[in-house]
């Protein structure tokens, strides 16, 4: 069956999307920047002794809710293979800066492959082939309209919500913590949760102190915060 579906998709020129999250840029020594910014408030540089002082101070300001200092560091991600359904949710984070692939100017099937996200529930229910068939019909009508002179910005109206849309997002560490706290939990939509979990895995490696209390349950595919005790 899988081979038949693969052959069918090639005939329709429709590809099943594979999600990918890439860290494009991050504030160099971001946690050190945060510590020095924080110590500026009280001119407490006599206590500056990284990496130990960095760990103690950042954990302390997070516990006390002094999160503004976390805004001095940021990260930029390129997200590929995710749907327009996902991006519509992601851009609602207004303190995050997005730059998204334009359906007005990108010619699908020419500038990029026609890719769609296939939800697991759709495949499990036995609708994978029909879903891909209908996606192919949308693509063929789109291409027919563009070939007939319909502007791409108008032909795009036929595009399914599952079509992929590449996006670059930049957010400071404070906003990323907020995004992870509401998008990596069980009640979040599965696709944005999957993408944000990939982002969180990266941030836990790049800024382990700031994102320390976020724990990932790989089996359940969720993350949760474990509040730390201390002064």
Describe this protein's structure:
- With 231 residues, this protein is α+β, with helices and mostly antiparallel strands.
- 44% of the residues lie in helices and 16% in strands.
- It contains nine helices and eight strands.
- The strands form three sheets. The protein has a four-stranded antiparallel beta sheet.
- α2 crosses α3 (52-64).
Widest sheet: strand ordering: 2-3-6-4
From the alpha carbons, calculate the radius of gyration and give it in angstroms: 22 Å
Order of helices and strands: HEEHHEHEEHHHEHHEE
Coarse structural class:
alpha+beta
Low-pLDDT segments: 1-12
Oligomer: single chain
Number of strands: 8
Q: β content, as a range?
A: 15-25%
State the major sheet.
Answer: 4 strands, antiparallel
**Count of runs of 4 or more consecutive helical residues:** 9
The gross shape turns out to be elongated
- How far is it from the N-terminal to the C-terminal residue, by CA? 59 Å
Proportion in helices: 40-55%
> Can you give the mean pLDDT?
92
Task: Lay out the secondary structure.
Elements (H helix, E strand, L loop, with lengths): L1 H11 L1 E3 L3 E7 L3 H13 L9 H13 L9 E7 L3 H7 L6 E4 L13 E3 L3 H5 L3 H20 L4 H4 L11 E6 H11 L6 H17 L7 E4 L4 E4 L6
Parallel strand pairs: 1-5
Antiparallel strand pairs: 2-3, 3-6, 4-6, 7-8
Helix pairs in contact: 1-6, 2-3, 8-9
